[in-house]
Write the structure tokens for this entry.
Amino acid sequence: MNTLKPNDQKQTQKDDWSAHWQAYSQSASENPAQKMRHDILLEILLSLTAKPELLLDIGSGQGDFLCKAVARQSAEKYVGFELSEVGVSISRAKVPEAEFIQVNLFAPQNSASRFLGQGDVAICSDVIEHVDEPEEFCRLIKSYLKPGAYLLLTVPGGPISSFDRHIGHRKHYNEASITQVLTASGFNIEKVYLTGFPFFNIYRLMVILRGQRLITDIETNMEGSASGILANLMMRVFHILFRFNLRNSRFGWQVVAVARSPLQNG
């Protein structure tokens, strides 16, 4: 996950992504909200007219999306950009068919520079809520894309929970605010929609109500405890319920955007 410029220390603790993936690797993979986002993105990706030669996953985390993308043979080549060394290490073991690069996009002459202007599709799933300068971050994503290439992006909407703040969320978005960010970054918007109503919203409300206790629950690993068994049961229930979410509703708390880089980069 790419967050701060190197000299910005305000959010250092919240942006320690190696510590994040060490603490939350298992819970992230089992999270029904992540599965929902990835399923939506994969469906959009597979609906595109042409199979991408190069699929870029920006903020690839521990490789969960590219694991699904590779299994569906959705592109010719797969590359993940990830800030954390731990995330890259987990991803390489999980998805050997993809290339994962530890990179800070804000750093000039970074290790991913050879892919500038090469991507046919970029995935950016729940990343920019962690970024202090989202417009600049999206401009940097655009620099890795061919003219006319796609950006498929998700970002959280709705209220910010204590856990969200704990893992470094700066802000959440709605249709207007994500449109403003992407347009200001030089992308052409094809579609923005709000998904997840009603069951994703209910899930998010439970996270909000759990508050600081959720942080303790996850970090102390409740596996085998009564609370842990209940939490796992609820996860399984929401995995089923999320199948019945409305794909597009003004009440949805998951924002999905489909945008394209200009035919003439500028």
Remarks:
- The beta strands are 54-58, 77-82, 99-102, 119-125, 145-156, 188-195, 254-260.
- DSSP finds ten helices and seven strands in the chain.
